[in-house]
Amino acid sequence: LLVFWQSGSSFHVFDQGQFAKEVLPKYFKHSNMASFVRQLNMYGFRKVVHIEQGGLVKPEKDDTEFQHPYFIRGQEHLLENIKRKVTSVSSIKNEDIKVRQDSVSKLLTDIQLMKGKQESMDSKLIAMK
Predict the structure, then answer these.
(1) 43-58, pLDDT tens digit by residue?
(2) Where do runs of H (alpha helix) occur along 64-93?
(3) Residue 63: how many CA atoms within 13 Å on its side-chain side?
(4) What are phi and psi of 67, to 5 degrees?
(5) Coiled-coil region(s) at which residues (predicted)?
């Protein structure tokens, strides 16, 4: 079995190699598991990392689990809420840009002040020597 429902709120891919070779080409124009995972991420699916795995240790089994808040067994009406994420420059508000510009300006001012203090300390140190 390649895909398995876990409590109806996630799905597993138990053998990624077999899944990529046999299942992906039936539904996609590729058989690349990394591309499939990238697509899942674009639609808001996330890989489930269990505490015992620690997130850093690669699991011993070739078992990957994915979940999405609107991907629930028996709740087909929720599927329409699964949409591709849109990240475009036009979605950034002018207010956000203004805040960022102000933050950058303050940072540059602070750096100039620190630079001036550093130069002053350097010259005092030279005079003390």
Answers:
(1) 999 998 876 655 555 5
(2) none
(3) 14
(4) -145, 155
(5) none
